[in-house]
Amino acid sequence: MRKTTNFASCITRRSTYMHCRSCTTSAPLTHQAVDCWNCKKKIMHLQKMICSDCGHLQDVNTSINYFDLLSFPIKFELEPLQLTKRFRQLQTLVHPDKFSNKSDREQSNSSDWSSLINKAYKTLATPVDRGQYLLNLKGEQMPQDNSSLNAEFLMNMMERNEEVEEAADNAVLEQLNNQIIIDLEKNANTLSKHFEAKEFENIKKILVEMKYLLSIQQSIKKKQQSLITTIS
Amino acid sequence: MSLVRNSSRLLRSQLKRVQSVPVALYHENVVEHYENPRNVGSLDKKDITVGTGLVGAPACGDVMKLQIKVDENGKIIDAKFKTFGCGSAIASSSLATEWVKGKSIDEAGKLKNTDIAKELRLPPVKLHCSMLAEDAIKAALADYKVKQQKKD
């Protein structure tokens, strides 16, 4: 009984700072409600994770987007430490360890929620993944064909790949990696204002460039690994 | 009782996980081209008998450069490539340079990605690599044509 009260009060506390994103009211969220599979009471719609009445863990809401799940506004900018904090708060509620003595359905739900929360966190934590995810939420797709890439950009990527290929020692590779980190950060910083201005073509260009840079970074890591193994 | 139930649940979830792991197997043709790539290198970009095609795949961050050297009869006498990407992309461009050598520029333009994909037994997820190679050939041919026109 005590456990149920804790869950309920936890939900109530969180619901005071969450607001409904699909309507304009901040009244108690009973519309778009779902019935608790255990006690049949209506649950508020925003996360639908735990029934505030009986405390039973609900089935995963597969339609929820990652931003809503982790209680962030749907925009590109977010504070990484805040993201990690919310991630841990959520995992605390649904972690499978907490449900090892509960019903089969709750155990299965716990593992599903945990996976979804992990996936959401990983996506939002990486700028390029977050950007692509947000782009898709806005109804846009990443370019699939070659036409979006200009010759100058490709030549630049070719040269940078060749630099990695020709790098003779770890010091050079570290330097190349540092430059990539700088360029990735520079690109990520421009995404926020492009999203605000809905400049989707620019966003796609930047995300593609980030993917190429990450690809080169993978090559650097691979080469660093191979240098380590040849030395030993 | 619950121990049996739990262990069978564990086994079932493990089996589900194993089934969902994608197994990537490269055909020996691809491995051959990857380990012994033919025609890796560069030709002189400024040479007017050389056409350079530079293409990329935004979905996977691959970049491919394919160059052809054409003689006065319109026949491709040399081809070189440089590709940064997955094994299938490297194999596709390696195979492409092998195939265009000795062909006329018209014949080379007819090379389809499906031929490359069939030869390398590329799985559906890697078909875009063969498409990239076809694009690279076309780009090299187009570049050569532009240079020849400028000459006249």
Automatic annotation (TrEMBL), chain A:
Write down the HAMAP family for this protein, in alphabetical order.
Answer: HscB
Query: Can you tell me which family this protein belongs to?
Result: Belongs to the HscB family.
What SUPFAM superfamilies does the record point to?
Chaperone J-domain, HSC20 (HSCB), C-terminal oligomerisation domain
Pfam families xrefs: HSCB_C
**Protein name per UniProt:** J domain-containing protein
Concerning PANTHER family, the annotation shows:
IRON-SULFUR CLUSTER CO-CHAPERONE PROTEIN HSCB
| Top-level taxonomic group | Eukaryota
Which NCBIfam families does the record cross-reference, listed alphabetically? hscB
Recorded GO MF terms: ATPase activator activity; protein-folding chaperone binding
Species annotation: Drosophila willistoni (Fruit fly)
Entry keyword set: Chaperone
The family database entries (CDD domains) matched by this protein are listed as: DnaJ
| InterPro entries assigned to the protein according to its UniProt record, in alphabetical order | DnaJ_domain (IPR001623), HscB (IPR004640), HscB_C_sf (IPR036386), HscB_oligo_C (IPR009073), J_dom_sf (IPR036869)
Q: Name one GO biological process term.
A: protein complex oligomerization
Q: Which gene encodes it?
A: Dwil\GK16550
Lineage, broadest ranks: Eukaryota, Metazoa, Ecdysozoa, Arthropoda, Hexapoda
Q: Which residues form the J domain?
A: 65-137
Give the UniProt entry's GO cellular component terms: mitochondrion
From TrEMBL, chain B:
One BP term from GO: iron-sulfur cluster assembly
One Pfam annotation reads NifU_N
Q: Which family does it belong to?
A: Belongs to the NifU family.
Gene Ontology cellular component list: cytoplasm
User: Which molecular function term from Gene Ontology is one that the record holds?
Assistant: iron-sulfur cluster binding
InterPro entries for the chain: ISCU, NIF_FeS_clus_asmbl_NifU_N
What is the name attached to this protein's record? NIF system FeS cluster assembly NifU N-terminal domain-containing protein
- Any coiled-coil ranges, and where? none
